[in-house]
Amino acid sequence: MNKTLQNIKPCLLFPLLIPVIFILSGCLSHWKGDEARIILLLNGDNTASGRSVVYPPNNAILNQLEHTITLKNGTQEIILNSEGGENIDAVVPAGRWNISVDTYYEDIIYAKGSQTADLQPGEDNFVLVTLYKAFYNITIVTSGETGHGSLSVGQNRAGDGEQLTLTITLDRGYRIKSGSLYTNRSDVYLAGSGNTRVFTMPKADIVIYAEIEETPWYNVTVNVTGNGSVTASPTGGYEGEQELITLTVTASDGYHRLKGSLTSNYPGGINFTRASDNTYTFILPDADVTVYAVFEEISSADAKVIEFSGFINEDENIDLTLNNGNDLKWGDILIVTIEDNANYFDSAYKWYLDGSLRSETTNVIQIEIYSGYEIGIHQLLAIVYKDGIPYSKELIFRVKYHE
To answer: Does 17-133 carry CATH code 2.60.40.1120?
Structure first.
């Protein structure tokens, strides 16, 4: 049987039990033998773990609160109402009742509480219901390429006013479609960028929407004229990632890249940064890019060894001599000798050219500046030993095109 009762006008109850009983003694009602009087006290319990207590609230809104109390016992349901700081004083059938309280502020649920009580007939039954902050549902709805990403708040319910973080997890090559990340609440702002957003939970259920789409991919292609090659690594990048592309430029034997011939089809041009003798880097714009390079044949007079920059790691006991100063032509041989006329060192020698160990084990090394020799700065490291202790000297030289 469903039954709705209006609450008997309550007496104002104070937190202490004795004053409460004293005040009630002047306003007791009569009831039948199978009925029980319930005095429902609303309160907050600051010992409740993990839940924010919101009752009693600030007195500024106390009188604006509306309470809906629902009592259920099997098929029976009784709904009582109260306002502000009033407690409930009513007569109901005796028995075991499940009691729930929904407290509203400006027609929005503000707090909730529940309790189970055995109401004894013919007695005053005092029931304390503790109110806690109301919790609201969080729902996330994704569309599009849902197999390549997800959104999560880490919980599916939260109390109003809680600061929450929305985490976006996407496979590489996928993104949230522009304008598709929003909520069903006009009063909720998703702040932030990248893979996180923060927001404040409203006093209502919230639904977060997002559409996942594939990120556009842009290719790097090369167009070479002449005998040589240009390779790009990586060969492209995703929109918005500003991928760093490395170009390796290699001329065939007897050829070199024509100065100024490294260009692109991108409007306004691309800034190629030289990273080493034959590598260049650039930031890939949000567009397909074609890189152009021209290689031409060189003659024996087109290059020479110049600018011997001197020695580093210098040991005063080591003397390196060169065969021909700064005037070695293309195809000539650079001869470097470790002079040890006093036989000071052991008969053990090692040579490293640009970090690679050479096969020579004597005090003389010969380097042929042949047509395919790499243009740029080079390092020749000589290591000798005295009583098992290594000593070294390093020669820095540069090969460049003839000016």
So the answer is: yes
